Amino acid sequence: MNKLEIGLIGNPNTGKTSLFNSLTGTYNYVGNWSGVTVEKKVGTLKEINGDLIDLPGVYSLNPLTKDEQVATNYFLNENFDSVINIIDASQLERNLHLTLQIAEYGKPFMIGLNMIDVALRSGMKIDVEKLSSKLGVPIIPLVARTGKGITDLLSILKNNEVKNPNTQLVTFDDEIEQIITDIMVILPKNLPGNARWYAIQILEENEPVLNYLNELVPISSFEKHINQAITFVKEHSSAKSFKQYAHQSRRKAILHLIDDCVIKENTRNISLSSKIDKIVTHKVLGIPIFLFLMFIMFKFTFDWIGTPLSDTLDSFISGPVTDFATRLLQDIGASDFIKAVILNGIIAGVGGVLVFVPQIFILFFFISLLEDSGYMARVATVMDVLMEKVGLNGKAFIPMIIGLGCNVPGIMAARTIEQPRERLLTIILTPLMSCSARLSVYSLFVAAFFKENQAIVVFSLYLLGIITALLLAVIFSKTIFKKEQSYFIMELPPYRKPQWISLFRSTWDKGKGFVKKAGTFIFGGSVAIWFLSYTGPGGFNVPLDHSYLAKIGGFIAPIFEPIGFGTWQAGASLITGFLAKEVVVSTMNIIYHAPNMASLTHVIGGAFTPLSAYSFLVFILLYIPCLATVAVIKKESGSTKWTIFSMIYSFVIAYILSALIYGIGTLLGY
Ligand code: GDP
Ligand code: MG
């Protein structure tokens, strides 16, 4: 039997990825907001010998954004066998727009009616059988996140019970139907999918569809029909475009369907969500509430749980692990060189970064909690007002929040932004978000200089990153980026009780990059840095001050003299930090040659002053995106010019801000 290919399609945030994960037994990023899945993902369906494709969420097959095109192009170019359309049962009216378009396309499909639990709780009863017979395809009620209904869904696939839908659920005015028929006559034969669907999409001026057809027939042959349709629509309906007219017609059909198949009972339950929303999306209170929650998050990360855990891990690595490695190396008779590489290079460099894992994971746990509960979507709404003032839109806030974990996926998430300019601006500004790698540098320095105020100091750095991004957005959108009309569509998902498994998974998902990097980049970087510190113009095992590392660091050090940290050690860490920002910590561990965190913070305490330390942290926050981020900026913007721009502007801003802080601080006598 041939391998089946099944596509998974639906509106954003309806549970596609949750279903994909439980059907294929893999894990992908599940997030309670739209725009999380931006590329299609493939998983294996063992039970039926097939592949399942998780497509990005779309509201329509006529795409607005780049990631929405993935779904439309999938319909045009892939030879799939059937489709599972995931619908949020509690949002039927909005979800069915897409369903009707899939039905018009005409290939066999089935519906997964997800979030039945939410629908029931809000007092909705759906007559599944009736809806199924009207649409002509099987419908399986689901609760994707607990796995309820999945066996039923699988058995439909297994027994090949997906059906060809009723393709004429929406009928248009007679004149339009005539135009549709006229187009169908001149369409090429043997298109994948129904000719009627193509005709409607042509009238809607669906770009991927027009591009696709253009290879087969000149698009100009449809111009006449498109104009006829627009003229009719403008004269006979309230719509301003055919697209809008089609939307209105589908809406009418949907309201009929809902009237027939849904019984809505009165409840008081829904109001709790809207009561909470009244407070957290309040015009004045919204942002302070968000800041307060962030602050509490940092309290947990530093003062309450994270730091004690990191300290414990540190004494474990600097104690038993180091002792064990030393004894082992002794026993196998390793040479002094090998001993030095392992103990002073690898263990110091990699271990020095790994001790921050607890703090990083705790921070991510709280971010995941806020995401999964549905709160982050509210934050985006709250921020929209502010974002619009600075020339972005609320959607830009999501890449930025994701960027707090790691800038790389943050920048990729900017694909959900419709306007190319706003997308580019978001890509360029997201690296200012303080990622987990920088957190390790902060942790080291706040332990050395700001013992009493760790949370507030780190919080100030995160805020500084966000504020700088917003201010630069204003400046850039007034100068190099001219403003375009933007609009913000983000529906508020209902609040959900976060689930442990999914919380741990998304925490791991965000943090795993950090752990992985420790084994690759940081490992390699540590060995290289150690080697540069071990060798010099004078040969091997030179005093540190005569090493190549000292020479290189010393060469650029004068640049940083005016902003408070003109030592070769700081210079060397900043250069190596371009590899990955954690490498700053590795470098310091290697350079200062400290047996554990306590003694490292002690040495650093002597090398900086609190003021120069803060200036250094601000510089670390802003100075240049790391190597991986630069690569993804290049890939996503497709422009060398903007990539170089983003490296240069961030360096300049970092220098200016550090200079201001150091200068003003010195004047004030710190
Ligand atoms: P996608 O954007 O369509 O891929 O949706 P996700 O799979 O990322 O899920 C969005 C959110 O809905 C997550 O917070 C899920 O935990 C939650 N979710 C998924 N399925 C269900 C369900 O059946 N019931 C409830 N209450 N929540 C669900
Ligand atoms: Mg998804």
UniProtKB/TrEMBL annotation:
According to its UniProt entry, the function of this protein is described as: Probable transporter of a GTP-driven Fe(2+) uptake system.
Please report a single Pfam family linked to this protein: FeoB_C
Task: Quote the record's binding site residues for Mg(2+) 2.
Answer: 21, 24-25
Give the way it sits in the membrane.
Multi-pass membrane protein
Q: Which organism is it from?
A: Gottfriedia endophytica
Binding site residues for GTP 1 = 10-17, 54-57, 114-117
SUPFAM superfamilies given in the database record: P-loop containing nucleoside triphosphate hydrolases (SSF52540)
What's any one GO cellular component for it?
plasma membrane
Domain FeoB-type G spans what residues?
A: 3-163
For this UniProt entry, which segments traverse the membrane?
A: 284-302, 341-367, 396-417, 424-450, 456-476, 514-534, 613-633, 645-665
Q: Which family does it belong to?
A: Belongs to the TRAFAC class TrmE-Era-EngA-EngB-Septin-like GTPase superfamily. FeoB GTPase (TC 9.A.8) family.
Q: Which GO MF terms are attached to this record?
A: ferrous iron transmembrane transporter activity; GTP binding; metal ion binding
Using the UniProt record, give the first listed, main subcellular location.
membrane
Does the keyword field hold tRNA processing? no
> By what name is this protein known?
Ferrous iron transport protein B
Task: Give me the residues that bind Mg(2+) 1, please.
Answer: 22
Q: Give the subcellular location.
A: Cell inner membrane; Cell membrane
The record's listing under InterPro entries reads: Fe2_transport_prot-B, Fe2_transport_prot_B_C, FeoB_Cyto, FeoB_GTPase, G_FEOB_dom, Gate_dom, P-loop_NTPase, Small_GTP-bd
Q: Which UniProt keywords apply?
A: Cell inner membrane, Cell membrane, GTP-binding, Ion transport, Iron, Iron transport, Magnesium, Membrane, Metal-binding, Nucleotide-binding, Transmembrane, Transmembrane helix, Transport
Q: Which residues bind GTP 2?
A: 35-39
